[in-house]
């Protein structure tokens, strides 16, 4: 489990290591490297998703490691509150879009099952690897921010929504 502290509040995420082992290992490596600390939610579409993990304020792109294998065939669905890896929408420069995910991820703010491998137009789909289990009200606040264009980027918050930190937290025993 991880806690994501943002400028709008904190939310907790349960990770599905059993269903997406490559993706979760990759995500946790970025967490341990503090890659996400100080990044922003750079793409916010209120009836779709909020995306972060790749840009610092000013839309300065962060360097990433090599892309990982897409685990979208893991049986998990892009339902409201789930986290999925962002990837290229089309093959680019010798990189296959299906296996192009690096550090960026998004939270589905409604059911987006058209992103599931079984329904995806490109046949690849987007790998779900976690879900928000606490603080969905924070996600709702973020999805409601004002957005505009920033250079070639669309749906960018007009005021930075900063990811202050992402930390591994121990699950409380019930």
Automatic annotation (TrEMBL):
Reaction catalysed by this enzyme: [protein]-peptidylproline (omega=180) = [protein]-peptidylproline (omega=0)
EC class (word): isomerase
Enzyme Commission number, as recorded: 5.2.1.8
Family matches, as CDD domains: cyclophilin_EcCYP_like
Keywords: Isomerase, Rotamase
Any one Gene Ontology molecular-function term assigned to this protein's record: peptidyl-prolyl cis-trans isomerase activity
Entries under SUPFAM superfamilies matching the protein: Cyclophilin-like (SSF50891)
Any one GO BP annotation for this protein: protein folding
Domain PPIase cyclophilin-type stretches: 1-168
Transmembrane segments: none
Domain of life of the source: Bacteria
Family statement: Belongs to the cyclophilin-type PPIase family.
Function: PPIases accelerate the folding of proteins. It catalyzes the cis-trans isomerization of proline imidic peptide bonds in oligopeptides.
Protein name per its UniProtKB record: Peptidyl-prolyl cis-trans isomerase
Species per Swiss-Prot/TrEMBL record: Gemmata obscuriglobus
